[in-house]
Amino acid sequence: MLLNREKIEFYLTDLETTIGKTINLTIVTLVLLSSGIFVAETYNISDDAHLELRALDTCILIIFAVEYLLRLWSAEKKIKYIFSFYSIIDLIAILPSFIGLVDISFIRLLRWFRILRLIRFIDTKFLFGSISSEDGVIFARILFTLFAIVFVYSGLIYQVEHSVNPQNFGTFLDAFYFSVVTMTTVGFGDVIPVSELGRLLTVLMILTGVALIPWQVGDLIKRLVKTANQVETICSGCSLAFHDADAVFCRRCGTKLPKNDQNNVM
User: Fold this and answer.
1) How far apart are CA 78 and CA 133, in angstroms?
2) Residue 165: C-alpha distances to residues 168, 191, 195, 198 (Å)
3) Cα–Cα distance between 49 and 21 in angstroms, integer?
4) What single-letter DSSP state applies at residue 17?
5) Cα–Cα distance between 168 and 181 in angstroms, integer?
6) Residues 6 or more apart from 71 whose CB is under 8 A from it?
7) Which of 100, 127, 143, 151 is the most exposed place for a label (fewest CB within 10 A)?
8) DSSP per residue over 153-208, as a string?
9) Where are the alpha helices (H) located in the chain, listed in sequence order?
10) pLDDT in tens, the chain (266 residues)
11) Burial class (CB within 10 angstroms; exposed 0-12, middle 13-18, buried 19+) of 199
């Protein structure tokens, strides 16, 4: 039985049903696996291992391409979908590999953006559903956002500097170290990019670190202050753990909250 457009669109975005969770968990796994392949390729590995990794990455690429085409085909407003944020991220994830067949090295830099596909799941309980505390979920999102940005910058600076500066950027770990030191504005100065594009990326790292890290930490502090007077009252509808002490209904789903004796505790 062929699935119709509405069902395909539903399962590609659904995170509640078994089929939807399986599809999206598979996508998350493939994103992480492909990112791991990129990292492994920066190290000295045997030719056989390199060929195996390349074959695996090609399979992942084909799956991503099919997924993108299915999302495009099932979208009700296709033009709107093409120019949507998630569509652009999905396209960036597959386009460099196809263009790389004609050896356009600059475009291949975009392959490191594949990790950003996980942004689709940040604002849901899909990745962080096992964390009961709302503050814990927010903290996990902050850590993931920072890691994703550092990962992308590390890949870009490695791709730019490795060929001209292999002593300082020999592996992905070297690039990751440089990105963390730069974005946190520690600046040990033991690793220095030599290319113009590498220096430009360094400036962007510093600006991102100055703007992003205080903002993310500030968001966490505001949330901690906001929840300081809340008590643990688990909602039976959505499992949200913390609510205001005098709350009668869940602020997320509207379900009536159970009476909590802690509300009467001084």
Assistant:
1) 38
2) 6, 10, 8, 10
3) 32
4) S
5) 14
6) 9, 12, 81, 87, 90
7) 143
8) HHHHHHHHHTTT-TTT-SSHHHHHHHHHHHHTT----SS---SHHHHHHHHHHHHH
9) 5-13, 18-40, 47-74, 78-82, 85-99, 105-108, 134-161, 172-183, 196-226
10) 445 788 888 888 777 788 888 888 888 888 889 889 888 988 988 989 989 998 998 898 889 889 899 999 988 888 998 998 888 888 877 876 666 554 445 555 667 777 877 777 765 555 555 555 556 666 777 777 788 888 989 988 998 999 899 998 999 999 999 999 888 877 677 888 999 989 999 999 989 888 877 777 777 677 666 666 667 778 887 777 777 777 888 877 888 888 754 444 44
11) middle
* pLDDT for position 124: 55
Q: Which residues, other chains included, contact 127 with Cβ-Cβ below 8 Å and sequence gap of 6+?
A: 28, 118, 121, 140, 144
Reduce the DSSP state of residue 244 to 3 states and report it: strand
Residues 6+ apart with CB under 8 A from 21: 14, 15, 126
- Give dist(CA 89, CA 212) in Å, integer: 20
pLDDT of residue 199: 92
Paired tokens of 84: 């949507």
Which residue bears the tokens 């688990």?
A: 234
One-letter amino acid at 102 equals V
If one counts every other C-beta atom within 10 angstroms of the C-beta of residue 68, the result is: 16
Determine the Cα–Cα distance for residues 111 and 151; give it in Å rounded to an integer: 12
pLDDT value at residue 176 = 93
For residue 252 the two structure tokens come to 């997320």
Q: What is the DSSP letter of 56?
A: H
